[in-house]
Amino acid sequence: MSDLNATSAALLGLLQHEGPMTGGQLVAVARQRFGSFFSVTRSQVYRELPSLTDAGLLRLGKQGPRSSQQYVITAAGRRAFKAWLNSVPGVDSMRSPLILRLLHANSLTPKQRNALVSSAREAYGEQLSIARAEAKQAADPYSKAVADFTVAHVRAMIKLIDSIPAG
Fold it and tell me: Does pLDDT of 132 surpass 70?
C-alpha cells in the first residue's frame, strides 16, 4: 500500500499507540478517541483490516473469544503510518449527515423538520459538554489544540442549527 487512506492511517495509529486490538475494539476506541472529528464505521474497519494485513502492515495476533481476531502493527505498518504522518495533508473534506439532511430538509414536513432540528440541538448540546470537559483535560499541546477545535466545531454546528427558522 503506497498511499494510505485516512481510515487505514487511523487504524495503524491506534494499533501503534494502544497495542494489539480486535476489529470491534478498534471501532470502539476510534469512536471514543476521534469520533468528534473523524468518523470510522464498523464496515470501514472490517474492510480495511484484511487489506492492511495483505499489504504486510498488520499481522494477525491472538485469537480471542467468539472467533475475534487481534491485529498487530508490523514494522512496515509503523513505517507506512510515519510516512502518512509526514505527507502533505491537503484540504479536509467535511462529511456531515446532519448538514446533508438540513440541505434537503425542504422535503420534510414542518413537524419532521422541527424534530430534526430539535434532536440535533439536543445531541450537539450534549457533545459540547463532553468536548469542553475533554479540552480541560487535554495534556499535550496537540491534544489541546484538537480538543479546542472540537469545541469550536460543535459551537459552529449549534450556531448553524440555531439559525434555522422554526417550521
Answer: yes
Last residue of a domain, one of 31, 51, 86: 86
Reported as a pLDDT band with limits 50, 70 and 90, residue 102 is very high
Dist. CA 58–CA 49, nearest whole Å: 8
Report pTM.
0.75
Note whether 75 and 19 are within 8 A (CB): no
User: 46 in a domain, yes or no?
Assistant: yes
Q: What nine digits make up the cell of 2?
A: 503506497
Look at residue 40 and give its three-state secondary structure.
Answer: coil
What grid cell was written down for 100?
446533508
Question: Is-contact 57 12, C-beta < 8 A?
Answer: yes
Q: What is the CATH number of the domain that holds 46?
A: 1.10.10.10
